[in-house]
Structures are given as C-alpha cells and as structure tokens.
Amino acid sequence: MRIAPLLTAAIVLFSARSAVYAQTFIVANEARIQSRIKALGLIGDTSLGIRKRVAYSTGDIAARKYITGLMQSVGLSVRVDAGGNIIGSRKGKNASLPPILLGSHTDAVPNGGIYDGDLGVIGAIECIELLNENHLVTDHPLEVVDFVDEEGGLTGSEVMIGGLTAARLGAITNGGKTIRQGIADLGGDPDQLDKAVRRKGDIEAYLELHIEQGGNLERENRDIGIVEGIVGLDSWTIEVTGTTNHAGTTPMPGRKDALVIASKLVVLVNEIALRIPGRQVATVGQINVFPGASNVIPGRAVMSLDVRDLSRQKLDSVFGLIRQTADSLAAATGTTINFIRKTAADPAMAEKKIRSLITLSADEAKLSTLSLPSGAGHDAQDMARIAPMGMIFVPSKGGISHTPEEYTSPQDMAHGATVLFHTLMKLDKN
Amino acid sequence: MRIAPLLTAAIVLFSARSAVYAQTFIVANEARIQSRIKALGLIGDTSLGIRKRVAYSTGDIAARKYITGLMQSVGLSVRVDAGGNIIGSRKGKNASLPPILLGSHTDAVPNGGIYDGDLGVIGAIECIELLNENHLVTDHPLEVVDFVDEEGGLTGSEVMIGGLTAARLGAITNGGKTIRQGIADLGGDPDQLDKAVRRKGDIEAYLELHIEQGGNLERENRDIGIVEGIVGLDSWTIEVTGTTNHAGTTPMPGRKDALVIASKLVVLVNEIALRIPGRQVATVGQINVFPGASNVIPGRAVMSLDVRDLSRQKLDSVFGLIRQTADSLAAATGTTINFIRKTAADPAMAEKKIRSLITLSADEAKLSTLSLPSGAGHDAQDMARIAPMGMIFVPSKGGISHTPEEYTSPQDMAHGATVLFHTLMKLDKN
Predict the structure, then answer these.
(1) How high is the mean pLDDT of chain A?
(2) Which residues of A touch B154 (CB under 8 A)?
C-alpha cells in the first residue's frame, strides 16, 4: 500500500491548495498596487512641463526599466521583442499550450495621468505576485506585456499582430522622434519587426485591466466594468464652402456664411447621435474658419467628425443620416459640404466566454458589475484580431482621463486586479 | 457810357460760362480717370507677394509721390500735414470761407484691389481738372486730401479730428512699422500732431467718392449710391465654457459640448439679424475651440461677434436679443457664455442736405440712384464728427472688395466723379 500515502499526500496537497483558494478567496494587495502605481507615476519628463511621459522619451525609457525590474523581481523571464514591447514570461504546467497574455501600456499622452495603461501592467504583475504567494502554477504559460506607444496609435500591439505599416515607421511621435528611432531606443529592432509578430492560434487569450476613462461605472455605482467590445471609430474631415464677403457691406439675406452652415451641421450631428436609440457617440472636436477675421463672413469652414459604436451597421447608419442631412443643408443653402474620410476602424468585440468568466469572477468577489462598450481605443482591440480578448474596467473619478486629474482609488484598482486574477485562473482551466 | 461796354463784357463773360455749364453738362473724363487708376494700381510691393501697398511701405510712399505729382500738375498747392496726410489746396473766390474737402486714401489692405480708396483721391483730382478746363473758381477754397493709413484704422482722419490716441502711435501696422515711424516716413511729424487737427467750423463740408465694396448697387442695377451714413460697429468676443471630455467614452446625454452650444448661438445670431426688420448685420467671423482635437469634446469655444447698423438704438436692441438668447442657452445647458466688448463705434450720418444735393446731381446727370448705408468704415465717418459729410458710392462688381478681384468699370468711376463734381458745385453755391 505504498501508493496510498503518496496518493493521499497528493490529495492533501491538492486539497490544501483548493482550501486556500476556496476558503480564503485570493484578493489583490491594495497597498502593493498603490505603491507601485505611485512609484511609476513619479517617473517622467516633468522638466519639459509634461506631466507624464510620452512614448520613447527618457521618461518612457526609465519607466520601462522600472517595469523590467518589477517583472524580474516576481520571477518573470524578461525579453524585449523587435517592436520594443517588454514581455515577461512564466512557465505553465503544459509547455505545448499557447500562452495567456495579460498586459497594457505605460506610455502616456502629453500631460496625462498616472492610471491610464499603468494599472493594466501593474495589475498583471500583481497576478504573478498572487500566483507566487499561493504557490500556484497555471496550465498555460503566462506572459505579461508592456506594449510600446499605445497613445501614439497602438504601435506595440500593431507590431505584434503584424499590422504596423512601413509608412508609420517614419511618422513623428509626440516626443519628436520617428517611431523607427523610438523602437530602436527602447531596445527593439525596427528592421526585424516580423520577429515580433504573433498569429491566430499563437495566443490562448489576451486580458487587459484598464481604468474606464468614462463616467459610467461611477454614475451607476458599479465596481467592475465588463467590456463588451471596443467601439469602431469612423472619422472624417468635413469641408463647408460658402462665399467669403465683407461682414459690414453684405446684407443678411443671400449670405452664404460657411460658419452658419457648419454650425447648423454641428447641431444636427449632435441631435442625430442623441435621437437614435443606442450608445453611439458623434463629436465635432475641431473647427477652423477661413479667412477667420471678425469683419469677414467665412467662406470656408473645416471641421472634424468622429463617430463611434460597437456595431459596424450602426456606424454606417449614423453616418448615412449625417451625410443625408448635410446634403439637404447644402442644397437648401447653395453651399457645398464635402466629407473626406480619415479612418474607418471596425469594432473589436470581447469574447463572450471571457466576458462570462469576468462576470463570474466579480460575483465571487462580491463586486457589482456593468457591461459596457469601451469608447476609447486600447491594445486589446488589436489583440482581438488574433486571439479571444477580454477587458476589465474599474471606475475613473468624474469620468475624466488624459489629464493629471485622472484618479482611480486604491480599492478600485485592487478590485480590478482581483477580478483579473480570477478570470485568468478560470480561463486557464477552461 | 464807358460803363456799359465793361458791364456788357462782364455779363457776356458770365453768360458764356453759364452757357457752357448749362448747355454742355460737365462730365468727368472716363479715359483720364481709368489711366490714372491703372497707373496708381501698378505701384506697390509686389515683390513681397502683396498685391498692393500697405500703409507706410515703400509702395505707399511711391504712391503718395505719384499723388503729390498729380496734385501739382493740376495746380494744387501741396503740403503734408503733421499726420502725413497729403493736402492739395486751391483758392476760392472768398478766402474767409472755410474750405470744402474732397478726399479718400491710397493705402491698401495686404493683397487688396486697386479701387478701394484710390478712386476717391483720383476722383477729387478729376474735379480739379474739370474746374480748370471750364475756367471755374469756387467761392470756397478747396482741399483734396489723401489720408494716411485708412486701412489700419482711419489713422490720418483720426489725426485730423484730434482723435488718434497716444497709445495708437506705438501700434505695429501691417507693414511692420509703428504708426509713429510710419507717419515720420511719410513726411509727417508724430510729435506735433496737434498742428494737423481741424475743429468744428474749420471745414465747410467733406465729400468722399468710394467704391461700394458691397453688392447692392449691382444687384439693384443703380449707378450711384447715396450714402445715408456709415454704420456703427459694436464688436465682442464671446466665450462659451462647457466641459472637456473624451469623445469616445462620454455618452451623448449630459455632454456639455462647448462647440455644440457655440454653434447654436451662431445659428441664433444669424436668425436674429435676419428676422428683425431693417438692414442690421451680425456676423461671427472667427471661432476657435479648445483643446481642438478630433477625439476630445471641446470644453471651450471662443468666437467673435460683429454687429452693425445705422442706428445706435438698433445696435443696442440687436445685441440685447443676442445676449438674452445666449443667457437662456447657457441656463438650459448648464454652460456659461461670457461677452467681452471689443469696440463700440457709433454710427456717423451723412448730412441730409448734402444727400439731397448728391441726388439732384445724379438726376441731372441722368444716373439712377440708391440710398444705402455704408457697412464698411471710411475716413468720412471721422470727418462727420467735425463737418457736414457726404459720400458717393459707385458699383463694385460682384460686391467684392479687399481682394485683387475688386473691380469697378471706367464708366462707373466717371459717373461717380461727375456726381462728385456737381455736388461740389451745388454745395459751393449753397
């Protein structure tokens, strides 16, 4: 009966672990997350009057060094891929399984906050801490990723899915460097980006924890946002052409004031987006009039249009209505209104199964949830092209982001990391 | 009976002149005016990419030299006053009478046309030619004035009425010089401007011929515009404050989009100016939104407001309505709308008697007329503060001005000079 003791030991061992897992529900360490977010938040080019750190800056490089150190301190095997993305790996029980990726980014917009992106990387490292503390090994290998230059256009995740165009390499970024130079400065190899590319099947799943950057969770008083998907974004430049004339000598009737027509269109765009049932948004964030003198009737107005929704069909129907309204307006006023398309990004849906695992994890943690779309873009939208994707939101105070006033409480951050951890564990066993 | 032949001679002489005046109605020389307008129009800093000549530039100085030469060629006694204004004088029969002034300006906006201002000076010189050719001497002394820097803010006429502020002397003009330096470069004396000042009673009347710079005469198919007055101009900066937010993550309901509110106000300003009976105009010619990114809901919009009318009461009531509308809009949307006044210029009326003399002169010349306000500013509005003022308009093709496309036909220019001449003659005898 030599087998029995061994078997018993195994059962005891298994039971002991299950007991820990079941009886003392594993939760993230609030103080640890907060101290790391604060430490990371102090790194940046404040000398330039920039609150945080834009991609490829000395601040960005310093922050990435800090993240590399953290990854190493929790036992991850760290490498930098050709795109400059930092990847920390932890072995799983079954080396033949594709890895589960957890991640986000640590670069920031100029004058940004200290939570956007950072929480996703610190939260992923927290999951590794929890695995270590509880002596757990997942079946799948795990990878924690700190993507490059998310704010400049998802550069690192674009590289990873093989989507970064050659033209983008020469683009000048917020910090003044080209993306090519920036990637090289982060330790990547812009001439061998193919080496960083992952394909469908290479990754088991991608999970990202992020602050909401909106006010829905706070308004609804919920702890956890379960992201349904990342909205598609269609953008245009709209050009209204009327007739420039003297503001003093031109009678009101018969004027073809491009700003008056553009203003009517701005109001109608807003009304259309408000009127249609659903959660679509439409925004005019830029407008310029020409010649732009107080005593001259504008002959030309140029403005932006940004339309977002989770459904491609809805995006098309909203734009169709706006276009139709603009055409009627132009015909009625004898002006012309042209639309020049800038971008057309399809929505990226979170996987249904992962969403239900997030919900289950939040329920177990006794946290309230809200399903919602992400109106902002994230690395997750790229990763969804090659792997099942799930995204967890935590509340942003006042719904504000991309400003130093951005704030998420330590408790909310810990809640997010706890749900991320349990979602990872369920996904691993699934 | 030695007296008789002498008396007869005098009567014959007088009759002969009256006969010329009555039988062959004096008309301006179309070819002469056209050739001088063209010659003057060739003078300018085209090397700078500027179509014409801004005040105080080398082109302006060259043009003033040309005008000085023309004045001398028609027998005027030419001086430059302390403000740099060129004044050509012709004696009248009665030296104790105050002079009648005829004039305009020869400086131009950057990239302007060749008729705005120039026609008034060339037309005044044409009147002197007609007096010379017809051996006529007026009772009143006459003065032809080429004012300084009209386009920069009526500088020369402001000097003449004692209205130029000390602060303006240091202002930088379109050509890069200060007004102080510019006046000195034109032969004026910026430290003795008081010597150029004329007071009420110093001038019998001021007459100005000008292109309409609007489309009323062309639209109504009339030859001569009888200016009722120069409109008052009230201008403001309007600041709309809402809430900046992410264009993707902020739901449509509850947004405080400063551009949407500003756009509603632009449309309402236009509607108010269109709806009220009268010829008031209201224009928003400038708008800027902040932060001004396509993916950010504008939190702030700043725009100009320019309101013009011949009546101070009307100006106040139009603004009152706009203000009331803005206040309601702000209250309804939870935004703030502030008005910062920039200028408040009262209307300047043409003298009723002079207007009737212009009408009479046009009737005699078998030219059709239209009474209308001047929506643009002119030196005449300053002169109206110290003397009876009359202004004659001729058609502008397409109503356009302040551009190289500005055009008035030689025939229309000659019509204007003919009416200017006969108005002068009637005024002189009045």
Answers:
(1) 92
(2) none
